[in-house]
Design brief:
Blueprint lengths: L1 E7 L5 H15 L6 E7 L11 H9 L13 H6 L2 E4 L2 H13 L7 E3 L20 H25 L5
Parallel strand pairs: 1-2, 1-3, 3-4
């Protein structure tokens, strides 16, 4: 079982949407039994909360299912997940500090947009202060990079349907 964790700041916008996109892609590919995914935030701002209403609306418009409550990254995440994917540089830096603090200095943390060629910005912009169009924009970004990520994982782990 390959475990993937998507991480943003508050775990109510980008990371739950990324998790939902990923889950849909592995389901469509017939690979649900080979993966497990979750999402978390580096902050404690929204622990226990549902995703932002705009996240839920965007997910619904793309026929994605989200069943998630906000949570904060914890020590066991570094042990349990093979892939920890940060949405931006700030969260990547926090995760790099946490892996040292939690005793996992060799754990590799990835910036999610590293899985897309020719990316101008390596961060997935935080849509929290934007409107519906900001959430649609991050959907498009995440849909593409998650497709690339999944394809790379399938090849590197020699997975087959």
């Amino acid at each position: 079982m390959i475990r993937v964790l998507f991480v943003c700041l508050g775990n109510i916008c980008r990371s739950p949407l990324a998790e939902a996109i990923f889950n849909k892609k592995i389901e469509v590919a017939g690979m649900r039994n080979q993966f497990e995914s979750d999402s978390a935030g580096t902050s404690d701002f929204h622990i226990g909360e549902l995703p932002d209403e705009r996240t839920l609306s965007c997910a619904k418009s793309h026929e994605l299912s989200i069943h998630h409550r906000g949570r904060q990254v914890n020590r066991t995440d570094f042990r349990d997940f093979q892939y920890i994917l940060a949405m931006d540089e700030n969260n990547l830096n926090v995760l790099e500090q946490l892996k040292e603090q939690f005793g996992f200095p060799k754990k590799e943390i990835y910036l999610i947009r590293n899985f897309k060629d020719h990316t101008k910005s390596l961060s997935v912009p935080d849509p929290y202060y934007g409107g519906e169009e900001a959430f649609e924009e991050i959907y498009k970004i995440l849909d593409e990079v998650i497709e690339n990520f999944l394809n790379q994982v399938i090849v590197s782990h020699q997975l087959y349907v």
